[in-house]
Specification:
This protein is an alpha/beta fold. The protein has 13 helices and 9 strands. α2 runs parallel beside α3, α6 crosses α10 and α6 packs across α11.
């Protein structure tokens, strides 16, 4: 991917994902790291079109000596983007339990909910990417999870009274997102604890580097599987439509290994035929995803 194409694709993804209604105030959780700064840049770019008021929200845990550096980076990014910055400064956690990942995460989300409420924002955005989704699914799998764990990080969830947490980048690869940093000359800082293999997530991340060389679409595949599992658990109509279409393909053409992309293409089609495999097409006979489909041999 070269030029502005990756950024345009991400912008389309953000808009199609219905991040928020027009004229809304949005709080972008910004740690100062490359992912969250890039998300801030993308939202600043889209704000005029949707009349969004975008605010960067930073939580300073005072856990590391360099935490002030992180805060300064966020302030610099806000200045560069022309966005207001709001900071929640927390008291340093007491004891090892307070420094545990889960405890810090809970305090951070509570602080972000408070910042959102103060700004009148009903939506908090975080920059979790496809790589984060892969790590979460694998960590859940290694713990012996059920289907809920395999659904990965949810794209949306309640964060506090009247505030929703939205993760719009779960299907976006980090390398594409980081093109925004270069395009906007945006400052960022890297968390030194990301290299500490004592943290399980970091150990999984290190192992995945080698796997991605052999499976370059690994994160895309895991993110897709997590989304499918989540749809099945929630019982969304699209999951039932996928099952019906696969049943028709198996019954009428003996196909049991149709790629997910072909299934989705057939569901998106309003009318006409969609190629699914050599010699086989799906004919759409109605305009909604639940309509009957007939498999036909290509001539």
């Amino acid at each position: 991917m070269r030029g502005a194409r990756p950024l345009a694709a991400i912008e389309r993804h953000l808009e199609e994902g219905s991040v928020a209604s027009d004229d809304a105030t949005l709080l972008v959780a910004c740690s100062g790291g490359p992912d969250s700064v890039a998300l801030g840049g993308l939202m600043a770019r889209l704000a005029p079109k949707h009349r969004w008021r975008v605010v960067l929200g930073h939580v300073n845990h005072h856990v590391r000596e360099s935490s002030w550096q992180d805060e300064c980076i966020v302030l610099a990014a806000g200045s560069r983007l022309g966005l207001p910055v709001r900071v929640a400064a927390l008291r340093p956690p007491a004891g090892p339990a307070g420094r545990a990942e889960a405890a810090l995460r809970e305090r951070r989300y509570a602080a972000l909910a408070g910042l959102a409420a103060a700004e009148g924002a009903r939506t908090v955005l975080t920059a979790h990417t496809a790589e984060d989704q892969t790590e979460s699914v694998l960590l859940a799998l290694f713990r012996g999870t059920g289907l809920r764990g395999l659904s990965g990080i949810p794209p949306r969830r309640p964060l506090g009274p009247g505030v929703e947490l939205v993760r719009p980048l779960l299907r976006i690869a980090r390398r594409a997102l980081h093109a925004e940093l270069a395009a906007g000359l945006l400052p960022y800082v890297r968390d030194p604890t990301n290299d500490d293999l004592a943290y399980r997530r970091n150990a999984v991340r290190a192992a995945l580097r080698g796997l991605r060389e052999q499976f370059p679409r690994l994160d895309e595949a895991v993110a897709r599987c997590a989304a499918i599992v989540a749809d099945e658990l929630e019982g969304v109509p699209r999951s039932a439509a996928r099952r019906r279409l696969r049943a028709v393909l198996e019954e009428e053409a003996g196909l049991t290994d149709v790629p997910f992309e072909r299934i989705e293409a057939a569901l998106r089609a309003r009318r006409g035929r969609v190629f699914v495999k050599h010699g086989i097409e799906v004919e759409k006979r109605g305009e909604n995803a639940a309509s009957p489909r007939v498999v036909r041999k290509r001539t």
